[in-house]
Amino acid sequence: MADLEHAFRLSFSGNLQQALRVVDRVAARARMETRALYKLAILERAFLLEQAHDLRGAIVTLEHLADEPGLASDVERLLCLSMLYEREGTVERIRRALRAVRHAYLVTRRAPLLRRIARLLGKLGHESLADAFEARYEELFQRRMHALTLREVVGALPHVYIP
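^ that's the sequence the OP posted. Answer follows.
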């Protein structure tokens, strides 16, 4: 972990090539020993490449991570990859981003992912589907914020209303 922090410091001081070498060294060491550290090192490599405006390099880095056993359907990898695909902006990349976010939603059931799905569908021109996903997100958000439906309010009135 200290080496990864050092790589960030190197990157922020303008020494990207040295930072990438440090990250690659950590990844090589951790590949067989510590799966979580290996994944973190590769995610950091992709982040550093993105910060250097090398989107293709960051995408390739995360796509190669899928070749590792157990990391092909990793939610964090897929969400990072979807953001990069979306930034690239081609129709095919937006479709890939949509598939990645959809898979992440099916695994985690996190409501904010519905809003991302809606945005991606809107970019692909599927406005009615995007509106449906946005409405579902709003519904889940309202439930999470404990907003009462009209039926619940009417049901509670006889118990608390005093004429």
